Amino acid sequence: MTPAVPLGAFIAVSAALFFIGCAGVLTRRNAVVILMCVELMLNAANLALVAFSRRYGATDERGSVFVVFVFVVAAAEVAVGLAIVLSAYRTRPVVNVDEARAMKG
Amino acid sequence: MSAAEGTGAAGTFVPFVWLIAAFPLAAFLINGLFGKRWLGQRSGWLASASIGASALLSIGVFSDVLRGATSTTVTLYRWIGVGDLRVDVAALVDPLSAVMLLVVTVVSFLVHVYSIGYMEHDHGFYRFFTWLPLFVFAMLILVLADNYLLMFVGWEGVGLCSYLLIGFWFERPEPVFAAKKAFVMNRVGDWGFMIGMILTFLVFGSMNFTEVFGQVEIAEQGVLGLICLAFFLGATGKSAQLPLYSWLPDAMEGPTPVSALIHAATMVTGGVYLVARSTPLFEAAGGVLVVVGAVGAVTAIFAATIALVQTDIKRVMAYSTVSQLGYMFLALGVGAPIAAIFHLATHAFFKALLFLGSGSVIHAMAGEQDMRKMGGLRRKMPLTYWTMLIAGGALAAVPPLAGFWSKDEVVGAAFTNGYPILWTIGVFTGGLTAFYVTRALWLTFHGEPRDRHLYDHAHESPRLMTAPLVVLGVGSVLAGFVGVPPEDGFLHRFLPEALYPHGHEVHQPQLAVIAGLAATSVFAGLIGIFIGLSMYARRRPDPAAVRRAAGPVHRLLENKYYVDELLDRRFVDLSKAFAGASWAFDAHIVDGIVNRIGWAFGLAGSGLRRLQTGLVGNYALSIVAGVLAIIVLYGGYATGVLRR
User: Fold this and answer.
1) Do the chains contact at A105 and B624, CB–CB below 8 Å?
2) Inter-chain residue contact A105 with B609, CB threshold 8 Å
3) In sequence order, what are the residues at sequence separation of 6 or more whose Cβ sits closer than 8 angstroms to the Cβ of residue B582?
């Protein structure tokens, strides 16, 4: 039996992924790239969920079920997000989020 | 329908006493609702008929009271019953209210009939005959009420109708101003009435006349004096006494029948009635009566002097009314309420007649009221002339006309009850009265016409207007005989039961004293008439010369002692300044606070507005920062790092 990968390793990878995604959301200007970074953050969370489920949920797979939910929601989110980006692009041909600031107070 | 109880037999008509008030109310409602569209000119007949029915019923009630129903309460229903406060809508039928009922309804009826002719061409005809019955209704409530609160309802009602009728021709600015002035001045008096009423309730636990007068002795002298003074303030407002008199001459802006009915015969006697009704209170309060008498005497001479120089025929009559009301208060003040009521009744007849006669003249002169443009009218309008001559004689206290008996009794009472100063004022004012009446009648009816055009178009008034004049003329001759012989006439045996519920010692002055006093005041009157005739008929001395010689005095009188100007400066300007200050407080403090609060939120908003950059990145950054902060704080507490 191969020695189990320690939980901490999974969490470390998950955290790294999350912050890479977060940094992407905060720093990138392209709307499509921001959406991809959001996907990255979601999958970081998924990884953490699966890891915890494996470690503590010996009798069932409740954590894994959550991951399936996140997949579905993420797919919907990408669909809606891309639709918004697309329609925004039709009104004004930019994908740079910094230039879409009509809601400025 | 209603419950009657009291001493003596209830009588045949007394249980239906409320119908007397119901007839005018019905006329008011019908004319008010249907007058404009359907009744038109018929509204005048309807109103007159309803008042006529009231007058007939009043005669019935009066005869019941004569036959022994001397103090009957006719309760309609309980109006207020809260805690100790119990007020009924109830009528107190006793000799005093019976006399008032008779005077009010009879004079009202005659004025209504007269008005059908006088107001014939007025486009507000139905409106006139809506307010006039409403006035009669309110006046009857005032007279019938068996408690102060219900009396106050009538009191305010007549005030309202007075306001509406003074301002009847509201297209012109003067009547509107006069109406406002009358209303505001009356409010000052009403304030006194209310204070008196509240104090009465606090002291006696009731506002019912019989209950209050039955326990006068429980009140302290000072409080009782305060109550009486407050009521007297109310009376000065309604009855146009100093210092609240100046609304009455201005009230002449209303139609002349209104002046005759409201501002001469009935409403303005409300204050006299109030004080006479409260005789047990005033007698117990002692000193206040001196104030009443003094105010009355001063008002009498004050108004009579102004009447000497007025050129508007109605204003002469108006100041004369103020002066005669002063006589009534003089009588009340010297402890002769019977004389006051006597003078009230006779005055109602001859002063209503003088006003209606003036109205007839004004009607004939196409609205001209200036006596300087009249003259010689006796040939054109003999009926008006003769009736007004009778009324003028009654006002000047020429024996044996009505005014002689009553005024002489007022003045005589001042002497026999020990007020020689008031007596002197009364006699002197009698002379002045005779002079200004002579002057007014001479300028109007005698001499050469001073305005040919107006004179040529003058004509006697229609019979609808002269008939009431004749009836009132007969009244002005005969009304005095209810008080004959002096001090022991019909009224003197009839009224005391109502005025002195606890009995009253009657002191009979000797006949020689009475005759001497009467001779003195008749002499004063004759001097007045003589000077008047000499000045205006024979020009010896010439009126114009007198006016020049009396320069400053004449100007003072012509300007009515500058009282209006004084009131304007002292009170009107003061209250305007107060109103201005209140407005400033409202605009700057009250509104200011509200506006500042709004402004502060606006400022905060414009500051916070900067946070909404519209940059999604900024929002995301703040979300991340927030999450991090939560994690750090939570982690810090959970691990104990941040815990103390």
Assistant:
1) no
2) yes
3) none
Tell me, yes or no, if A88 comes closer than 8 A to chain B by beta carbon: no
Strand order in the sheet with B85-93: B3-7, B71-82, B85-93
Count: domains in chain A: 1
Summarised one tens digit per residue, pLDDT across range A56-94 is 766 677 778 888 999 999 999 999 989 988 888 888 777
Asked if residue A42 is part of any domain, the answer here is yes
What are the two backbone dihedrals, phi and then psi, of residue B590, each rounded to the nearest 5 degrees? -65, -60
Predicted TM-score of the model (pTM): 0.78
**pLDDT, tens only, B339-373:** 899 999 999 999 999 999 999 998 888 888 888 88
Q: What is the CATH number of the domain that holds A49?
A: 1.10.287.3510
Query: Which residues of chain A neighbour B626 with C-beta distances below 8 Å?
Result: none
Closest by CA position to B145, among listed B180, B186, B197: B197
Q: Classify the C-alpha dihedral B444-B449-B452-B457 as positive or negative.
A: positive
ipTM of the complex: 0.77
CA B226 to chain centre: 22
Q: What angle do CA B593, B598, B599 make, to 5 degrees?
A: 95
b/e map B55-94, b = 16+ CB within 10 Å: bbbbbbbbebbeeebbbbbbbbeeeeeeeeebbbbbbbbb
Range of the domain at A37: 9-96
Distance CA B167, CA B188 (A): 19
The full DSSP string for B171-197 is: TSHHHHHHHHHHHHHHHHHHHHHHHHH
Decide if A53 is inside a domain: yes
Give the span between the Cα atoms of B323 and B347, in whole angstroms: 11
Residues 31-70 of A with CB under 8 A from B: 34
User: Residue B45 is encoded by which pair of tokens?
Assistant: 């007949």
Residue A30 lies in a domain: yes
User: Average pLDDT over chain B, rounded to whole?
Assistant: 88
Residue A4 lies in a domain: no
Largest CA distance in chain A: 61
Give the pLDDT confidence of B422-460 residue by residue, as tens digits.
999 999 999 999 999 999 999 888 888 888 888 888 888
| Cross-chain Cβ contact B624/A26 below 8 Å | yes
